[in-house]
Write a structure and sequence with these properties.
It contains one helix and no strands. The protein is mostly helical. The radius of gyration is 34 Å and the shape is elongated.
Amino acid sequence: MNPFVKRAEPLEPAADPVEPMDLALEQAVIEPTFDPGQWEESRSEARGSLEQLLLNVAVLILVGALSLRAQRWIWRRIARRSRAAAGRR
């Protein structure tokens, strides 16, 4: 990169301009449909995703609590050993 601004070259006009499609024509009408099966499937997927999320959060909380408890046990053990070693001197 450099500090100088470089502009793009302007494009040449199209040699054969094309008219845009008119989507308001009766030929292009698409009727929306509702598929209850697809709707129910998406709801069940959402429900399954929510259950997975809740399970993951619960496991993270459990692992965090166990980790903190293990750390507390280890540090208490280290503190007891250091107090016992200091008492012997």
